[in-house]
């Protein structure tokens, strides 16, 4: 029985502007491929997401694709790396990473970068303590 579910929310906007469909499709396929390599398979489901952009001072509503896999174990850092790549490509303030029905916003672009209230390294340590 696979006891963990990991989900990455792939956005469809560059900040508040729609990204080209081919770019979104590429990154959904890329995320599915990465999850499939790590866990043997992955599924994508379409959803509508909204979030308040502090940077732009407005509500952003967009189609998102939730890519997810079930697994026995996972490498948290590899999941964060995927989210950071998406964050950079889509110029997002954060990317949603959901693990076992707990949502985390991946803010930092690289290790040591400032995140609201916590450093990147502290977030990894806290996550490992919580999940072990």
Describe this entry's structure for a reader.
The chain has a 5-stranded antiparallel beta sheet with strand order 4-5-1-6-7, covered by helices on one side. Strands 2-3 form a two-stranded antiparallel ribbon. A two-stranded antiparallel ribbon has the order 8-9. It is α+β, with helices and mostly antiparallel strands. The chain has helices at residues 21-39, 76-89, 120-131, and strands spanning 4-10, 13-14, 17-18, 43-53, 58-71, 95-99, 102-106, 114-115, 118-119. Residues 111-127 have low confidence and may be disordered. The two termini are 18 Å apart. Helices cover 34% and strands 38% of the residues. The protein has one domain (4-107): 2-Layer Sandwich (Alpha-Beta Plaits).
Brief rundown of the structure:
The chain is α+β, with helices and mostly antiparallel strands.
Number of domains: 1
* Major β-sheet profile: 5 strands, antiparallel
Choose one word for the global shape: globular
The count of helical stretches stands at: 3
Enumerate the strands of the largest sheet in spatial order, edge to edge or round the barrel.
4-5-1-6-7
Radius of gyration (CA) equals: 14 Å
Beta strand count: 9
Structural class, judged by helices and strands? alpha+beta
Q: CATH topology, what is it called?
A: Alpha-Beta Plaits
Any idea what the CATH architecture is? 2-Layer Sandwich
Query: Which strand-content bin applies to the residues?
Result: 35-45%
Order of helices and strands: EEEHEEHEEEEH
Mean pLDDT: 86
Briefly, what CATH class? Alpha Beta
Distance between the termini: 18 Å
Helix % is 25-40%
